[in-house]
Structure formats: structure tokens, C-alpha cells
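The following block was generated as part of the benchmark described in Methods. Ligand: FE2/S2 (inorganic) cluster.
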Amino acid sequence: MLKHGEFALYQELRDFIKGKPKNESSLISILHKTQNLFGYCPQEAQELIAKELALPVSRVFGVVTFYSYFTLKPRGKYNISICLGTACYVKGAQQLVAACSKELGIENGETTKDLLFSMAPTRCLGDCSKAPVVMINDQLHGEVTEKELVRILQDLRKKEAAQGQAEVAPQEEAARTKEGKQ
Ligand code: FES
């Protein structure tokens, strides 16, 4: 059963597949499209891709689970990767994981219920001189302390809340105007 709004996404996915060769060479690019459209690779989409490319569903599933870019569950808007490579580990990465978990109420590898934040375990991010390192989406934060990380998370939450209010305000204003006219 499709959720609200998913019909259009599946239609876009079908259109994308139409333009691709119907064999395994198209699999990765179609999965990229799927991950970008849905924020993950849903089971139904994997079945559709398998059918269109005449592949076993197990083959599609195997590729999804092999590459860390693809996920089986929705990711949050902000993906937090706390480096657990050796240099970061000795500089207190585990304490950062604990502080982040406590602040967000999730374990490493999970997503918050509001789909705002995901935590993903990661190995060396290639910037060991700035250990401990945290990546939030495409932005790298070096020499991060627990306090700083919590502040960054709280700032992102505030920013999202402010944006949510900014979007609601014109609707409320329109509703008030409408009521006033009646
Ligand atoms: S070990 Fe963390 S960036 Fe290299």
C-alpha cells in the first residue's frame, strides 16, 4: 500500500527506468535515483526495479546492502557521522557518540522519529589532524567537543523550528484574513 505522496515518486522512478537499458548495467544508477527520491530504497521499489531489469529481487537487495550509500530505512534530513577511526577514537569520539545519542535519544545507526537526524557509524574521514571529526551532511567539523556537538544539534533544531513557523505563519495569516472577511 503506497503512502501519501509516494505515487508521484514511483511514477518518476518508472519514467527514469524507461530511459535506461533493461539489464544489470543500469542497476546502480537506478538505485541512486531511488535513494535520492525516497531517501532510502523501499522494498516495493526494489521489487519494481528487479521486475523491470529482469533480475532476482535478491540481487537488487544484495547491491543495496553492499553499498553504505544505499539504505533500507529512511534517513534523517541531517546525517551525523562521528568518525570512529583510530585518531578520532583516541581523542574521544566515543564520548561524542554518547553525547549525540543522549541529545537525540537514538543509538548510532538510528534515525529520530521526526526524520530530522540520523546517526551513522563511520571510519576515517581522512582528516585525522583535526580529530575528533564529525561530518554533518557535507560539512566537516574538526576538533569537536561534546559541548560543541550538542550546540550544533540544538542550533539545527532551532533553525528547523523557525523554518516550520515561517511556513505556518503565512497560512495562519491567510486563514485569519479569510475568517475576517466572512
Ligand atoms: S581517524 Fe577520524 S578522520 Fe581519520
